[in-house]
Amino acid sequence: MTLPHGGGGVTPGDWWLHQGAVAPVSTMRTARGQDAMSAFYKDVVKASPGYGNAADQLWEGLRRGISLPLAIIEQLFQNAAHDVTQFFENTEDALTATRDFFTGKWTAVDSAAAAAAYANAQRAAAGRAIVDLFDRPAGPPGANWDVHHFGGGGSARVDGSGHLAWSPFGGLYSLDWMRWLPADTITDYQVISTVMSLRPADPFLGAEAFSYLLGRVNPAIDTFVAGQIRCAGAGVVGYVSGTPTVLASNPVTVGNGDSWDFYVGDAITSDPYKFVLVRNGVPVVTANDTSMVTQYGPGYRSVGLGMQAADRTIFTGQTSPGAMVVFSADDQ
Asked: Which of 30, 57, 125, 144 lies at a 20 to 30 A Cα distance from 51?
């Protein structure tokens, strides 16, 4: 038996020399079964130059200036800490998941779950007066968004693959508030929705990163109500002239592909101070603004999004908020 010339970087001559150098062919045949031999030569091919070149090409897609060792460590930490349903049977699977994670693709879900999440995104947009599917070339969010930036580097950007994702730069806190410009809701009772292709990243001993759904936004984008989503929790926060008041917060299991709906006010009971954050159809945070901190009325009917990256106390770079595949809003 011989290999085609150059297969796995091993010439036919090298192949036969390798067999003779390791052990007599008869000994190898009697001591190892077919599965053992297959595994043995698979390891040989993996160590060859041809395999190394393929691995290099695989990792050319790794974006955002993050080194390979850091990416592997961070992904494994996240799975160990927050995703007990995902296990890696070998290094190749771990590397693939890490690559997908840092290119903003779907992870920790199988193809059926991913398809269901995309279907949820389409349902979230169906019939809504306000919709953005982020289906345009890579770049800033676009002319339909008024973006106010605070803090350090990095920004929210469309990635060219149907996601709104954070593009990190530097290692400091950074925040984008985004208001939808083409239309407001007619009433004070709003629903704002998204499907998150990627949950906010683990804080790694630093501050937490957040994704936000914004309702009752004023033109200055400093007074509004926010449904806040973090790595392992969610909450409702009221902002007045830039000052936040936490109205409610709960630990919540947050996963890739989750659907989120933020109900601002309760149209059924005509209660403008009740807010409900819903994950995958189940309410996870309910807030009643008994102090009437939040504002409403004709000047507070825009909707929007927020992305807040965080600094770290270990590793360099930012902890990124989640990525989204759809934004939609309407009156309840």
From this structure: 30
pLDDT at 4 over 50: no
Residue 24 has a pLDDT of: 41
The stretch 165-185 carries a mean pLDDT of 93
CA dist 201 and 199 (Å) reads 6
Residue type, 310: A
Task: Please provide residue 186's backbone torsions phi and psi, each rounded to the nearest 5 degrees.
Answer: -80, -35
**Residue 46, beta-bridge partner list:** none
Listed in sequence order, the DSSP H helices in 59-102 are 68-82, 91-102
**How far from the centroid of its chain's Cα atoms is residue 309's Cα?**
12
Backbone angles phi, psi at 236, to 5 degrees: -125, 130
CA distance linking residue 206 with residue 311, whole number of Å: 6
Find out whether 191 and 283 touch, Cβ atoms under 8 Å.
Answer: no
Mean pLDDT over residues 213-219, rounded?
98
Check: CB of residue 226 under 8 Å from CB of residue 216.
no
What amino acid occupies position 224? F
User: Dihedrals φ, ψ of 51, to 5°?
Assistant: -65, -40
Q: Distance between CA 149 and CA 175 in Å, rounded?
A: 6
- Only one residue has tokens 């007074």, namely 223
**310 contacts: CB under 8 Å, gap ≥ 6:** 173, 203, 206, 207, 208, 209, 318, 319
Residue entry with tokens 């992870």 = 107
Integer Cα distance of 166 and 323 in angstroms: 7
Statement: residue 77 has pLDDT above 90: no
Mean pLDDT score of the chain, rounded to an integer? 75
Centre a 10 Å sphere on the Cβ of residue 117 and count the other Cβ atoms it contains: 22
User: The tokens of 196 are what?
Assistant: 């998150």
